[in-house]
């Protein structure tokens, strides 16, 4: 249960969330709640075709429609040199289509009118003459030599975006040549969508008198968005203020810059009025950043007892029409090379081919640090394939292959240095807590009766805290993060951070870190984020980087203040600085516990009574460049029963044991785990964005793309171990994505385990009941 | 690309059926939910029809072009147009043949490329909807032709008794 805000030394306690009263009582302020005087509304005209040449666009009738102020086409943008914009993956993307369209629902024109309804109606009156072109939706076909070339703007006349490798090819081949056991499995991670409750949107407000653009936007990274906007528009950065208000869920979907944003800004610059653009659900699902869409093949070389030797992975990544993947620029396939997971492979070799197809662009880090989810799913799935082949229990196989506690810091064969971990302890706790032995006995009895029960294990390693500037950047900007803390005379604190939460509970979590470091309660600390005019420069909240980076910045920034506070305390206590001790609540003179001063006394003194020569005031800023990433891990176990009549899978139990290092607020961690598990469950059993051969997107809303309700969602059981990060200021690693990264494999492993007596080795997600039913029918289990 | 096809028999001579289906003024009103018909020429006309597939509801502007491949036997129709951000491109083929009983068999085949919200949002419902529209179209056609056959009967009576007219 939540504890009171006034608690001192709040770190590690379930302090009640500061943000809840406003969210629960409907007092949050989201983008569509903001109404500015004279505001206009924008609606986008989108392509019905997945691939077609644009012969002409007739906007004359739309311009005559009631209330219409402006219609923008790609040609208008081209005249302003804004028809194309850079993507985060060093590709370029059309803002409004010129020449041809490359995916269904691509942005073709923007209509701005006095009301939203007028804009929507007038958008119907923009006539576009299309000449349909051959469509490529299958990435494998896109790579065939006679495939139509989709990107005529690129120098390279091929649909291959990049080929990327990691690991030692020769050494891997060598181990494969001599290995007693080799298993191979094709695994597909479907195209899924983050589907935040609040879709994307913005209001661009250009003030013609001051020349300042205020841009309200649903952003996970306001500062990065400001820099990109400045680079694209030519407006100087200090004349752009980005405000990210309350954001109703991000999950990676609110990291990219979308064409609608640019159009709204152009419209406001042209009209000198605020222009609002809010997406519909269908627009969000069909045209903004999707996630995953990896076609993977993994091979493991192993000893006869299941001890792994080498891993070989080939992957085709479908990036859609533009490579707009959110990845640090050095890693074309993100952190996919973490695919050796928790296991002590001697060698590994990973290849990824990125491919253009006639689909919406993207590849966002949907509750996943840049392709770690795909990697974790692949290795956890294939470890089970190996377990079955060598006849070893999947839990035992994992134990045999874990990287040992004493091997940390561990250098992986693809070049990552894992900071810390204790995989055996975490798995042991999970097995004990779920009653693994008894479950296996129960399963054997059920099998004897012809019932289908499965147990699935996933012991994944996650990589978070994208930040180390030696390897990480977004469009060249180094991925540090920042905090600025200001202590007021009465000891009340306003802290501003460079990240931007979308429901993760930063206002409480960071307040706890700062309060802990300063000897205050979280009640004394207000955390503000999301306004580039007030917050220090930061790279935003995604990829579970907030606590590892901004959390580090907050702790170190508070320590800077504590250093000065200690000097003031010495002055007030009339002792030498070296004789002042801090116990987390107050400063006292060494050996004289009765003589104490609190942070409140010190804060007042900082503005009224500082030692001679000292600068008054009590504030600090810290830009934290972490020395390394952090590597949370976990052991997840799913128990499923399959209905033989319908093929429906019932998740009877699910246990998640996470290790995210130091826990700041257990209640918030548990909430994050519940949310991520629900998403992982949805991916495993409900979600996919398929396309027909004409490139029509077949999941465009929540009728076709299912989002689990409370009725669908299993009851989650959670527990944790704590292996602090050795390099993080408070030992925290980050947890938000772990459940989404680790759980899909546990679900699928459980279903495959249930179907194993039929000889099933793999089943691709999403595991719809009809898929299972078909398998049962093929094997004569059901009629 | 979706393909729909079928056939049905009309109890009228082939020439009568041919003349009917090749006349936009007579054939046009058989289109279900027709709101407006605008005949540009014998081989080209425009229609405004009401469309509703699942959540996609609105009006479609369609341009139909007719090409005769074999007079009184076969013709091709190209239907292009759309609305509400959706597009329809159809190629239809009609073939008429005599039946043993002196009637006409009409074979039809339609290849339709449907894009935009109507295909993606209404995708799962579209085949059923297409079947319903086709059934309605041919029901209308049958009804219209049966009135033609009455007219034909009437006309033949009239020709048989020319003196009865003034």
From TrEMBL, chain A:
An MF annotation (GO) of this entry: iron ion binding
Aldehyde oxidase/xanthine dehydrogenase a/b hammerhead domain ranges (all copies): 25-134
Key word Oxidoreductase present: yes
Xref: Gene3D superfamilies: Aldehyde oxidase/xanthine dehydrogenase, a/b hammerhead (3.90.1170.50), Aldehyde oxidase/xanthine dehydrogenase, molybdopterin binding domain (3.30.365.10)
Cofactor(s) annotated in UniProt: Mo-molybdopterin cytosine dinucleotide
Chain segments carrying region Disordered: 718-737
Protein's name according to its UniProt entry: Carbon-monoxide dehydrogenase large subunit
Automatic annotation (TrEMBL), chain B:
Protein name: Carbon monoxide dehydrogenase subunit G
One Pfam family named in its UniProt record: COXG
Cited InterPro entries: CO_DH_gsu (IPR010419), START-like_dom_sf (IPR023393)
Native species: Polycladomyces abyssicola
